[in-house]
Specification:
Elements: E1 2-5, E2 34-36, E3 43-49, H1 54-69, E4 74-80, H2 89-103, H3 105-118, H4 123-129, H5 134-141, H6 144-157, E5 166-171, E6 177-181, H7 186-197
Parallel strand pairs: 1-6, 3-4
Antiparallel strand pairs: 2-4, 3-5, 5-6
């Protein structure tokens, strides 16, 4: 099944991209991805986001609402797509990987909450509140491994993802995929998710 929900708003203009699970335009979920929800959920929502994008901040709240409404049925996966004209986006993305490395997946999501609430430029203070000293954070952010992970996520999505947020809804084990570009209301996600769960 191929269906596209068009842009409502995005940090840069974007074209919707149709895909099938057999020919996903972005990599499937893998070890090292940041998951919110159960790994074995029926539906996976892969979101490409930017910590400095105001529309991503709005959608972050929608993602949390989805997890509450579809507990156990939907897993949200966060992937980096820092936009070049957002000065704090890439440093914040690097810092988030360091938080995950030092404190784990739950800390990553707490860190994401803090950045979307207080701004991407607050990444050092947000990390400090999670118990990561500035020196440790800066050293980690300079590491090739962390830089490569963020760069690879963006590179592997280049083409199908041209703006943030961009989300791919996948019904696991099928060829059913839907692409939602821009900040979409909960109702649009619910319509797509309900359709996948009913099949």
């Amino acid at each position: 099944m191929k269906r596209i929900l068009l842009i409502l708003c995005a940090c840069i203009p974007s074209l919707a991209f149709a895909a099938t699970a057999e020919n996903m335009p972005v990599p499937a979920v893998r070890m090292g991805d940041h998951l919110l929800g159960r790994r074995n959920a029926k539906v996976t929502l892969i979101e490409y986001s930017d910590f400095e994008c105001p529309f991503c901040a709005r959608q972050h709240e929608t993602m949390k609402k989805i997890i509450r409404a579809y507990r156990g049925k939907v897993t949200v996966v966060y992937r980096h797509f820092p936009l070049p004209f957002h000065a704090s986006a890439e440093p914040a993305a690097l810092a988030s990987e360091c938080v995950a490395k030092e404190k784990g997946n739950q800390a990553f999501w707490q860190f994401a909450d803090a950045l979307f609430t207080n701004g991407a430029a607050s990444y050092e203070s947000a990390a400090a509140r999670l118990g990561i000293p500035a020196e440790t954070l800066r050293s980690c952010m300079a590491s090739a491994t962390v830089k490569e992970k963020v760069a690879n996520q963006k590179k592997q999505a280049a083409g199908p993802v041209t703006g943030t947020p961009t989300s791919f809804l996948v019904k696991n084990g099928t060829d059913s995929v839907e692409t939602l570009v821009g900040s979409q209301p909960f109702e649009n996600f619910a319509l797509a998710i309900d359709g996948m769960l009913q099949k």
